[in-house]
Write a structure and sequence with these properties.
The complex is a heterodimer of chains A (603) and B (450).
Chain A (H helix, E strand, L loop, with lengths): L14 E6 L11 H9 L4 E7 L5 H12 L5 E6 L2 H14 L7 E5 L1 H5 L4 H19 L8 E4 L3 E5 L3 H12 L3 E5 L22 H13 L4 E4 L2 E9 L2 E8 L5 E6 L1 E4 L3 E3 L15 E3 H10 L8 E2 L2 E2 L2 E8 L24 H15 L4 E6 L9 H10 L3 E4 L7 E4 L7 E7 L5 E7 L1 E6 L1 E3 L3 H7 L26 E3 L9 H19 L3 E4 L4 E3 L9 H5 L6 E8 L2 E8 L9 H5 L5 E3 L4 H12 L6
Parallel strand pairs in A: 1-2, 1-3, 3-4, 6-7, 6-12, 7-8, 12-25, 14-23, 17-18, 17-23, 18-19
Antiparallel strand pairs in A: 5-26, 9-10, 10-11, 13-24, 15-16, 20-21, 21-22, 27-30, 28-29
Chain B lengths: L5 E9 L3 H11 L5 E4 L14 E2 L4 E2 H13 L4 E4 L2 E8 L23 E7 L14 H5 L3 E3 L8 E3 L1 E2 L11 E2 L9 H5 L12 E12 L3 E3 L16 E3 H8 L19 E8 L15 H15 L4 E6 L9 H10 L3 E12 L5 E7 L4 E7 L1 E6 L1 E3 L34 E3 L9 H25 L1
Parallel strand pairs in B: 1-2, 1-12, 2-5, 12-22, 14-20, 15-16, 15-20, 16-17
Antiparallel strand pairs in B: 3-4, 6-7, 7-12, 8-9, 10-11, 13-21, 17-18, 18-19
Classes of the chains: A alpha/beta (603), B alpha/beta (450).
Bound molecules: flavin-adenine dinucleotide (2 copies) and iron/sulfur cluster.
């Protein structure tokens, strides 16, 4: 623990300010050149420049040159949200041979040009840059926090995603523990048969994986286990695990965690399309099971010993639900998303039935056929060739299942078919199959232990849905497979590979560097009141310890940097102003506020 | 002539789109040395040329540039742009194990490496002398259509392809150059070199990842939609440029006369899901980008009518269905119909003739601007260049589509992104991570065995 260095109060007067046009995203609303002219005159600003895209190479080169030539020693970039480019610019500063933490960001896109126009926008941009500059003057070089990392990863969930992640990571020489709550590995694939679109057998795929994993030297598998608690931080997590059978408790110390907790099938509510009321209404998984067992002998599919002359397959059950039309679950939620796998799985089953049991007629009732993936459209074309009858319903006119008036059929399905002038039709059937969608397995307990975000769709929420699909905002925790969103087996395995590559890159060196924006105690000022410890949000980040100074015992606060969130709750309550956040000091806030309220800038 | 200049890497990545960039980063971060070979003058692929991306509506250049920049400055990654891949095959100078199936089920993998023959095409600019000041571009008197802007605006014969291109090197379109010598005079570092020659070199690597992406079916080959001769009928990538903040006109105008369009139509499955064009599969991203473009349009032209002619809306990804429902709520009109043909209408309009899917027959409508969501085809044909197999859809074959879709039938060669079938950005990024993992696994396995 170092003392608070005195250079925190010193200010520099060589700030370089770089203002981005963002190709028009900013300059269409902010008069960037006018801002530059004002900024140039601000005290402490050594240079102020503009560029079409600051993040492009010419933009970064500008900063590097100014730093190298000694014109500037602090950098402010005014552009988009720091979440996009903070690291880009820090890296550029590093390449110039300077400390990457002498950098401050002003967001003049999301906070200015996308919400204001004209003079208001130009003025606000000026004020935000003034404030960032005021802060930058007091930035000091910092060193990243280095923590030792255990070369070990724990995978939670033993479906295909979990198995592939484990195999991939283990291959790079990192130890792996795989924890599965049920008695067997394989997840959903244990319940499936021929997979869409290729027709490969789920059991073959599982076998190929299991053959490799079971005897793999650096993979430990625990089935029938429940995780009771997760503590620690990246590189040094600890899991408390208990076995279901004999309640035996054990710990796992691990450097990274991958969530691969998968999904479950949606269960229709009692009476949804007659489910639970009529035994002839089943879900897709049941149909797959029936086809797997294949007890039918003749040219007609038999279910429970009864021949199926006609069957209806209803798509989007428990998926693509629309507020006001569909009935919410008990928790008030609707599954508004598409389950992605059911269209292909339904067509796959239909083709199998039509090709093996030509005596069974099939009607598919759908909203949109989503055979998006490689090889899937061919299933759809094949189904048409196999004379599967397609009928399309709109979300506001769902098919209805009622007992059939015809003696030969137990049920009939009423549909308004938008492929034939919205004509109302009754289809008599022996069997109704519901394409029930995918829902995430309930991991709310684990999520709250690790502070993992969950999206409005109840799936685990990644950092960025485009760019960082397998990472969480919590460093060292990753996700793969259908716990993130519906996907098919191949896509779940792709995600597993992607999560594995991230985890191996993280643990490769045996240590990890974290941002230094954490609390720091000024030992001289600290009187050991303990208010900070009480205010601290993160268990273990801050504690009072006893030290002997000149023969006397004193209580002093101590920060565990790797755990500190840098939230500043401690700084807010300290009566002595003895604790502060590196990079976000109170003095810096004061200067920023001064810059914002002084009206000299927004001319 | 056999080139003698050989460069050695752990992995060769062919194609510098988002798939190639992500693969290179994921391998570089693991400590492997990576070469990225790109045929265009800049890395970034299609993604850097998009406007905003569904479903987040992030500005495409804002989220692609950091990746491009991270690759360009990565200590383990080397870029080779404006290069042609002449051949890629196992290096026969060593012994070959003949094991055809790499990856997780290959017990005794022991192969010799890969060897690629590459040509650096001439930019007619010395990359070492050039400082990217663009003086040459400013003085050049010859204007040509700017293909980076879908051909909708003009650029110079010598220019840096676009403002955030990496590398920041201009190149000369020698065919249209009139050799006036002005650029040569203007260049402060004497970097212009009219006599630059193609240069051949060899890259050897232990593994390769193919990330050559896709192209759109060319409209000019399509009679149904007027062979690209009807004014104001454009393809979806051109529309991306019209919508981009730094696009050809800085706003959405119809190309023929600069009028603000009041009625805009999207033709979905243009060439996709259609055996006659050879694209019998679904191109997977067109539904979503059409919806995205329609939303962006209704933001910039709030009074315009926007219609999407579609067969099925395939909003299957995370957050996509909600995106679609929002578009409906915004008033974008979805008509379930197959567009049969497009003809030139009056006053610059295009007449769309379509068959309604509810069985009620054929109808026509006139629109100021028509966007064709053309089908996606592979950008690269391995043909005689590389013995990797392609499927009936002409994309690279994946030998284990469920267990690891990135495995090809060539040992040590992997595939990711749109080169393995149409794909959106997030699926591309995920798949690229997997390809990087398989390549890393392949190399660490060999390390263990040797
Ligand atoms: C009806 C149906 C048909 C399908 N058809 C096809 C098809 O034809 N083709 C295709 O490619 N895909 C198909 N799929 C999709 C395929 O099943 C999934 O893509 C795949 O199973 C996803 O694997 P996963 O590992 O992500 O999840 P899962 O298979 O769900 O595995 C997750 C595992 O994690 C375990 N777990 C959960 N929570 C915890 C916890 N807290 N602690 C420890 N362990 C936990 C679970 O017990 C389970 O074993 C279908 C899906 C369904 C529902
Ligand atoms: C109009 C349109 C809008 C879109 N909008 C979105 C969107 O909003 N959101 C979204 O998620 N997705 C969108 N997409 C999809 C997105 O463009 C793709 O997912 C993405 O570009 C795929 O990346 P890639 O790297 O695989 O391929 P590409 O982007 O095609 O990159 C391939 C690269 O390889 C290079 N290359 C090709 N052949 C060779 C060779 N022989 N040697 C060397 N280099 C070679 C190419 O020059 C190119 O740079 C859109 C697509 C289109 C057509
Ligand atoms: S995949 Fe098909 S059946 Fe499943 S929710 Fe999506 S559209 Fe509906």
């Amino acid at each position: 623990m170092s003392e608070m260095s005195s250079d925190k109060t010193t200010k520099t007067d060589r700030v370089g300010v770089y203002i981005c046009y963002c190709g028009g995203n900013i300059s269409d609303h902010v008069d960037v050149e006018a801002v530059r002219n004002r900024v140039e005159k601000m005290p402490g600003v050594a240079v102020a420049r503009t560029e079409m895209f600051m993040c492009s190479d010419p933009g970064q080169e500008m900063i590097i040159e100014d730093l190298k030539s000694g014109k500037i020693d602090r950098v402010v970039v005014a552009s988009c949200a720091p979440s996009l480019h903070e690291t880009t610019f820090r890296d550029a500063i590093k390449r110039a041979g300077s400390n990457p933490f002498i950098y401050e960001h002003a967001n003049i896109r999301e906070q200015v040009s996308w919400v204001h126009h004209g003079d208001t926008a130009t003025n606000k941009a000026t004020v935000l840059i003034a404030s960032a500059t005021a802060k930058a003057k007091r930035l000091k070089p910092l060193d990243p926090i280095r923590v030792e990392a255990k070369k070990h990863t724990t995978i939670i969930g033993g479906g295909v995603a979990g198995i592939k992640t484990a195999l991939d990571i283990a291959q790079t020489g990192i130890e792996v523990t795989l924890i599965e709550k049920s008695g067997i590995l394989g997840g959903q694939l244990n319940h499936l048969d021929r997979l869409a679109p290729s027709g490969e057998k789920a059991s073959d795929i599982l076998q190929e994986f299991l053959d490799q994993i079971v005897n793999y030297k650096n993979i430990t598998i625990h089935t029938n286990c429940i995780i009771e608690n997760v503590t620690g931080y990246v590189g040094n997590f600890r899991l408390d695990v208990v076995t279901k059978s004999d309640n035996k408790k054990f710990n796992i110390d691990t450097g990274a965690i991958v969530m691969a907790t998968g999904s479950v099938s949606y269960t229709p509510y009692d009476g949804e399309y007659g489910f639970g009321r009529h035994e002839q209404v089943i879900v897709l998984k049941d149909l797959i099971h029936i086809l797997k067992e294949n007890k039918s002998s003749g040219s007609v599919l038999e279910v429970n010993g009864k021949p199926i002359k006609n069957m209806v397959m209803i798509h989007c059950v428990g998926s693509r639900q629309i507020p006001g039309i569909h009935k919410p679950k008990e928790n008030g939620k609707l599954n508004e998303y598409c389950s992605r796998t059911c269209c292909a799985a339904m067509l796959n089953a239909s083709n199998q039935i039509r090709e093996n049991f030509p005596g069974t007629g099939i009607y598919e009732m759908y909203r949109d056929i989503r055979t998006y993936g490689r090889g899937q459209e061919a299933l759809y074309t094949q189904a048409s060739k196999n004379k599967v009858v397609f009928m399309r319903y709109e979300a506001d006119a769902l098919p209805e299942i009622t007992p059939s008036p015809l003696p030969d059929y137990p049920l009939q399905v009423k549909i308004k078919d938008s492929l034939t002038f919205n004509e109302e039709m009754d289809v008599p059937v022996d069997l109704v199959v519901l394409a029930t969608g995918i829902e995430p397995d309930d991991v709310s307990g684990l999520a709250s232990m690790m502070k993992l975000p969950i999206g409005t769709d109840q799936f685990l929420l990644e950092v960025h849905p485009k760019l960082r699909p397998v990472e969480f905002p919590i460093t060292g925790v990753f996700l793969a497979g259908t716990c993130q969103a519906p996907m098919d087996a191949g896509e779940a395995c792709n995600a597993a590979g992607a999560a594995a590559v991230k985890a191996s890159a993280l643990l490769r060196k045996g240590y990890i560097e974290l941002d230094p924006f954490v609390a720091q105690v000024d030992i001289d000022k600290c009187q050991g009141h303990g208010a900070c410890v009480e205010a601290c949000l993160k268990e273990g980040a801050l504690e009072l310890i006893e030290t002997t100074i000149e023969g006397k015992i004193h209580k002093k606060a101590r920060v565990t940097a790797a755990l500190c969130l840098g939230c500043g709750a401690c700084a807010a309550v300290c009566p002595e102003k003895a604790i502060d956040i590196n990079g976000w000091a109170l003095k810096q806030y004061e200067d920023m506020v001064d810059a914002i309220v002084s009206d000299g800038f927004a001319v | 002539m056999v080139p003698t200049n050989t460069k050695n890497f752990d992995t060769l990545v062919v194609g510098g789109g988002i798939a190639g960039l992500q693969t290179a980063l994921d391998l570089g971060d693991q400590g492997y040395s990576v070469a990225v070979v790109e045929k265009d003058a800049s890395i970034g692929g299609k993604m850097i040329r998009l406007s905003k991306v569904f479903p987040t509506l992030d500005c495409a250049s804002c989220i692609t540039t950091p990746k491009m920049s991270a690759v360009a400055h990565h200590e383990n990654i080397t870029l080779f742009t404006y290069c042609t891949l002449n051949s890629l095959d196992h290096d026969n100078s060593g012994e070959d194990s003949g094991n055809k199936f790499p990856g997780i089920n290959a017990p005794g993998v022991k192969a010799t490496g890969l060897k690629a023959l590459i040509t650096q095409n001439p930019r007619y600019v010395d990359p070492i002398k050039c400082i990217g000041c663009r003086q040459c571009e400013y003085v050049c008197p010859v204007h040509v259509p700017d293909m980076e802007q879908g051909g909708l605006s003009a650029t110079k014969v010598i220019c840096i392809p676009f403002s955030n291109a990496i590398p920041q090197l201009p190149m000369m379109d020698i065919e249209n150059c009139m050799l006036c010598g002005q650029c040569e005079k203007a260049c402060p570092t004497n970097a212009i070199d009219y006599f630059q020659k193609p240069e051949r070199f060899i890259i050897t690597a232990k593994t390769a990842v193919i990330t050559t992406g896709f192209d759109l079916l060319p409209v000019r080959d399509n009679v149904q939609y007027g062979n690209a001769k009807i004014p104001n009928v454009i393809d979806s990538l051109q529309m991306e440029r019209l919508l981009a903040p730094h696009g050809p006109y800085n706003r959405v105008l119809r190309p023929s006369d600069g009028m603000e369009p009041d009625s805009i139509a999207y033709v979905q499955c243009a060439g996709s899901r259609d055996k006659s064009t050879g694209v019998s599969y679904c191109s997977r991203v067109c539904c979503m980008y059409a919806i995205k473009q329609a939303m962006l349009l209704s933001g910039s032209l709030p009074l315009a009518d926007i219609i999407i002619y579609y067969m099925d809306i395939r909003a299957f990804g995370k957050g996509y269905e909600q995106f679609y429902q929002n578009a409906k709520a915004m008033g974008i009109e979805f008509i379930k119909a197959k567009v049969a043909r497009i003809d030139e209408g009056e006053n610059g309009q295009a007449q769309v003739r379509y068959e309604l899917q509810d069985g009620s027959g054929i109808a026509t409508a006139d629109h100021d601007l028509v966007i064709l969501s053309m089908g996606m085809i592979p950008a690269w044909n391995p043909g005689a260049i590389c013995p990797v197999s392609k499927d009936s859809d002409k994309f690279i074959t994946s030998i284990k589509p469920k267990i690891s879709p990135v495995l090809t039938d060539m040992e040590g060669v992997f595939v990711a992104g749109a080169a393995a079938g149409p794909k959106d950005i997030v699926d591309t990024i995920t798949e690229s991570g997997c390809a990087a993992m398989e390549a890393a696994k392949f190399m660490s396995k060999r390390l263990v065995e040797n």
